[in-house]
Amino acid sequence: MSEPLLPARLRRRGFLAGALGVGATAALTACTSNEAPSSGANVAAAPAAGNNAESGTPVTIGFSAPAADHGWIAAIANNAKAQADQYPDVTFKPVNPTNDVTQQIAAVQTLINDRVNALVILPNDGSQLTSVGRQAMDAGIPVINLDRIFDSPLAYRAWIGGDNYGMGASAGHYIGERLRTAGVANPIIAEVAGIDNLPLTEQRSAGFRDALQTYGFAVGPRQAADFTAQGGQRVTANLLQAAPRLDAMWNHDDDQGIGVLAAINQAGRNEFFMVGGAGSANAMREIQADSSVLKATVTYSPSMASSAIALARLVAQGRGMNDLAEREVPASITLASATITRENVADYLPLGFES
Fold first, then answer.
1. Residue 332, in any domain of the structure
2. 174 or 324, greater pLDDT
3. How confident is the model at residue 50, as a pLDDT?
4. 3-state helix vs strand vs coil in the chain, percent to 5
5. Is 172 found in the same domain as 127?
6. In this structure, are 101 and 184 located in the same domain?
7. Into how many domains does the chain fold?
8. Average pLDDT of span 70-93
9. Is 132:146 a contact under the CB 8 Å cutoff?
10. 200 lies in the same domain as 250
């Protein structure tokens, strides 16, 4: 999860682009004045430092992530390896994926003892893995923290991940606009969340709630599942039984969306439309076919793992991102969440991961 020619900000292994040496254009912004600089002002110009894709000092990058028992996580691991394979100067050293925090800590400690040149870590739990991130950084091994963030910036050199709040906001705006255009007053809007004790779920729900409020709408019945198809089917069946009428639904995760759709079909419900989350190929094919209640999904792309490897390589080699004026790789990069509909799904489908 060979790349077709897609919009630069969307390419699986290239959204950070010229800077990361994978062939697209970055869309990173900074706080600037709206006025042109006056004559003689100090203006920072990006140095012409060469192509980041050119080979540099050979480096070994360690990689640790949860077990690939979920389509999105599987795509994370696949993308990381595929990106590393592009570089002749990178030795990719993954450890066994695990959903056990203690085992993940032990695996990362093995990589630290092996003196890898950089680490990319998607922790099962950011808080519980913070200490091992600190161990690596204290040992002089830069850590690229992927998605689930550590508690302390001292535990990582750079963080890259999705915009959970923005994901919820994108879903809320799509639903709000569609209902307002249809002239629906006082709509009943359901939400099937992921795991409620995860900060990412709280952020997604907050973005969804805040976006709907701008239209004068509110979230109606809400159930939390567990990011699995089985959990999605179970909680959606309960939600539908308790809500005889709905106007719209947002499901946080396209993997659990398989079960959500199954429950909707079993209940024979089609009076509402649904928005998914993350951008799986399965969901996009449903949207393209336009044969179910699923009409859109909002992205949370596993391409972030590809870019994390690219960042780790640059940091380990002491290089910056040559499209930027600064000489150092940024400390934090947040991906934007796009809304995929029938009108643009063909552009995004090659990026989809299989649930």
1. no
2. 174
3. 56
4. 40, 15, 45
5. no
6. no
7. 2
8. 95
9. no
10. yes
What the block records as the tokens of 231 is: 């959990």
Domain containing 131: what range? 9-27+50-162+302-324
pLDDT of 341 strictly over 50 = yes
Do 196 and 267 lie in a common domain? yes
Interatomic CA distance for residues 354 and 282, integer angstroms: 6
**31 backbone dihedrals φ, ψ, rounded to 5°:** -75, 115
CATH of the domain at 217: 3.40.50.2300
Query: Hunting for tokens 């790349």 — which residue is that?
Result: 3
Task: Report if residue 340 sits inside a domain.
Answer: no
Report how many helices (DSSP H) and strands (DSSP E) the chain contains, helices first: 11, 12
Distances (CA, A) of 217 to 188, 270, 275: 9, 21, 16
DSSP, res 280: B
C-alpha to C-alpha distance for 172 and 210, rounded to whole angstroms: 8
Nearby residues of 247 by Cβ (< 8 Å), 6 or more positions away = 179, 184, 187, 188, 189, 271, 272
Give residue 197's pLDDT.
86
Three-state DSSP class for 273? strand
Structure tokens at 351: 């990026």
Which residue is listed with tokens 């552009």? 347
Is residue 243 domain-shared with residue 153, that is, in the same domain? no
In angstroms, rounded to a whole number, what is the distance separating the alpha carbons of residues 83 and 15?
A: 13
Same domain, 307 and 294: no
Distance CA 354, CA 279 (A): 10
CB-side exposure of 46: number of CA atoms within 13 Å?
12
Give the pLDDT confidence of 234-265 residue by residue, as tens digits.
Answer: 999 999 999 999 999 999 999 999 999 999 99
With vertex at residue 309, the alpha carbon angle to CA 94 and CA 28, rounded to the nearest 5 degrees, is 155
10 Å CB burial of residue 242 (0-12, 13-18, 19+) is exposed
